Amino acid sequence: MMLIKTDVDIIRELAARVAHIAALPVQEEKRTMWRRLNSLQPVRPMVMIDQVCWHEMNTGGELSLQCSDRECRCYEETLRRTLYQWKHFPVDMVVERHVKVPKAILNSGFGMNIMEETAVSDPSNSVVSHQYENQFQTEDDLEKIGMPAISHDTTETRRRLEDAHELFDGLLDVVPWGAEPYGSFWDPISQWMGVEAALYMLVDNPDFMHRLLARMTNGYLSAFDQLEAQGLLCGHQSLIHCTGAYTDALPAAGYNPAKPRTKDLWIFGLAQMLATVSPDMFKEFEVDYARRICERFGLVYYGCCDPLDGKMAEVRLIPNVRKISMSPWVNEERGAAEIRGDYVYSRKPNPAFLATNHFSEEQIGADLLASKKACENHGCPLEFILKDISTLNHEPDRLSEWARIAMKVVREI
What we know:
Layout: H1 5-22, H2 25-38, E1 46-49, H3 70-88, E2 98-102, E3 105-107, E4 116-119, E5 129-132, E6 150-152, H4 154-168, E7 173-177, H5 186-193, H6 195-204, H7 206-229, E8 239-240, E9 243-244, E10 266-269, H8 279-294, E11 299-302, H9 312-315, E12 321-326, H10 332-339, E13 344-347, H11 361-378, E14 382-386, H12 397-411
Parallel strand pairs: 1-14, 2-7, 10-11, 11-12, 12-13, 13-14
Antiparallel strand pairs: 3-6, 4-5, 8-9
């Protein structure tokens, strides 16, 4: 593809600014601290901000896109957001001196379409409400679940890389980027059935749900086999589910950069929809299947918005877990007592504190300090991961203020 000169100029100017930041010594200092945390020997609690409501942030035009070509606009958006975050709320983010170019991987998935209605309150916000149609009404509907087929469009990947080299050579390294592992059963099921119907099915027809989960497990394992065989898995991860993934534990012995294996990588898993089921049901319908997938991977980040403080005995049955999400809805003291020094306590501060009519520094500081004290009481390595930020009440400076408060809390002895 012939790139537009003005687009190239815009991208290269932004890339030069990113490259300058990436070369700063502080980047390696932060990588070292993430490695220490992920080896359960932290220097201090670490802080990340992700999943930002970018539609509310562009008050000064710093995020306004200027490129014409669609692909260039995607690179431009990533570069501008990186520069914006580094300027306004960097916390412990690491700016890398490379750009990831996604390989053109074709994945048939499970063969399911999502049938839904959505409701929008803010047209500029990508966060919308969903009402899903249950596509599993009879036993025969189970046959809708197909096995994923993975292939690679090498011609398209080559084109993407050629364009990226023209845009970034001499400034940022161009890295062909494969599939990042993901292993949730319940997020897809919630979209195929709806949450209410799926939860009722656990009680009314558990055998059907077991057969569904078995098919999905075999599908995920088959997909990972294909990705491995074709050299289509991603390389060294700097992030895993919004947290720093730097570690000395990966890759495994015998690593070949041209053909990464599952055991060289992190995976993240979650079962948010099962937040209200019993620990026994959580084990039966999540853990017994998830551990077949997680045992293949080098390290596992487990959990998201699901409160896991009361299900730690079951989470401990999942192999290779290194970080465990502690959502805004956990009993923090109980969660810390259960995690102890065995895992990273991945605390998710409540983003609602940034969305209220009145922004309270005292409330935010007290919330963060309570987490820190609970982890100190029980010897837990701690990270704060602020994410799922749907709105800042259209006051973007709140995110910078939260970052300032968080860094103050983690640096205090």
